[in-house]
Amino acid sequence: MAPAGESEWTVLFDGSTMNAWRNFKSDTSAWRIEDGTLNTTGGSGDLITNETFGNFELEFDWRITEGGNSGVIYLAQEGEEYNSTYETGPEYQIIDDESYGTVHNITLEKNQMSGSNYALDEPQSVQLKPLGEYNQAKIIVNEGHVEHWLNGQKVVEYNLWTDEWKARVAETKFKDMPGYGQFKEGHIALQDHGDPVWFKNIRIRRL
Fold first, then answer.
1. Is 164 helix (H, G, I), strand (E, B) or coil?
2. Mind listing the pLDDT tens digit for each residue in 72-104?
3. Which residues, other chains included, contact 33 with Cβ-Cβ below 8 Å and sequence gap of 6+?
4. How far, in Å, CA of 25 to CA of 78, rounded?
5. Burial class (CB in 10 A: 0-12, 13-18, 19+), 13
């Protein structure tokens, strides 16, 4: 029996169906299932859960290509005033830490690396698998307290909705997105940043 306040795990992707998912602001999906993975080669748009979640623990495995970029966004909204999932939801960053900057001729900041709370909290004690192998990830959101885990290590911890949070957001590009990080329930989104990315073993439980 699950502890008080926790539910049993729900499988969001079983390797063969996409019943829990659809594209952002769409009734259908442009992603594909291949060899038991949920993936896109780019240009498919962000994928979101049909259901919304507030307090939850989410687990998933991911891998990326050389120079690739993606992410998992949570507490995302679909209002008419929003054109993308990242306008409202914080992001667990997924990226090729070693090669992305070289491939795209930019400097990758620490708070833009894998496991980060994108553009806000840099990850600590990161131990990435070699490129092409799957990494295990976990996101916990509970009454505004957020944790990012990567390959068994807690790499980010922060609190939503506090004065400190609002002040830090005001120093980023999200300051011009009034809905960013404001909601207590929303969709889980798999980001299509234009690069191939693969997900599997996706499951969630409400807290």
1. helix
2. 999 999 999 999 999 999 999 999 999 998 888
3. 15, 16, 17, 18, 39
4. 6
5. buried
**Residue with the two structure tokens 């940043």:** 193
Cα radius of gyration (the chain): 16
DSSP letter for each residue of 86-120: GGTS-EEEEE-TTTHHHHHTSPPPGGGSTTSBTTT
Strand locations in 7-130 (E): 10-13, 21-23, 32-34, 37-40, 47-49, 56-64, 69-76, 91-95
The closest alpha carbon to 126, from 112, 115, 137, belongs to: 115
Report residue 18 as tokens. Answer: 């996409």
CA distance 143 to 141: 7
pTM beyond 0.90? yes
DSSP state of 180: T
CA pair distance 5, 119, nearest whole angstrom: 31
Phi, psi of 136, deg, nearest 5 = -95, 130
Are the C-beta atoms of residues 18 and 199 closer than 8 Å to each other? no
Burial of 143-181, coded b for 16+ CB within 10 Å and e otherwise, reads: eeebbbbbbeeebbebebeeeebeebbeeeebeebebbb
**For position 101, what pLDDT does the model report?**
87
Dihedrals phi, psi of 91, to nearest 5 degrees: -125, 130
| Kind of pairing between the strands at 145-150 and 153-159 | antiparallel
